[in-house]
Amino acid sequence: MQLTDLVRERLRAAADEKFGEGQRRFFQHEVNTYGVRGPELKAIARNISREVKTRPLAARNDLCTEFWKSGKLAGLLHHTGVSRGTVVSAK
């Protein structure tokens, strides 16, 4: 199983649909969210950050890009610190 699949699986398992609905109502623009609360998101990020930080910069960039393209960043990249020093295009 790839790391991205593992992360998505953990996010889906921690998802709270009611919370996700609230997140979607909060923003004026459409957002695509799993509905994971901050403490659970931080725990998931903490668990995967050890694995991610051992990867070469190019692999981290690919990981960030894959999450970015999915439209469901869910704050994960911020919490892991993966995006620091990694360039990810928003286009």
3D architecture notes:
With 91 residues, the protein is mainly α. It has one domain. The chain contains 5 helices and no strands. It has helices spanning 3-14, 17-26, 38-53, 57-70, 76-80. α1 (3-14) packs antiparallel against α3 (38-53). The longest helix is centred in the middle third of the chain and has 16 residues, at 38-53. 18% of the residues are buried. Mean pLDDT is 77; it is low at 82-91.
Summed up, what is this model?
The protein is mainly alpha-helical and 91 residues long. The chain has helices at 3-14, 17-26, 38-53, 57-70, 76-80.
Strand percent estimate: under 5%
Report mean pLDDT, rounded to a whole number: 77
- What is the radius of gyration? 13 Å
Number of strands: 0
Q: What letter string, H or E per element, gives the SSE order?
A: HHHHH
Strands, helices and their partners?
Layout lengths: L2 H12 L2 H10 L11 H16 L3 H14 L5 H5 L11
Helix pairs in contact: 1-3
Give the key terms.
91 residues, disordered C terminus
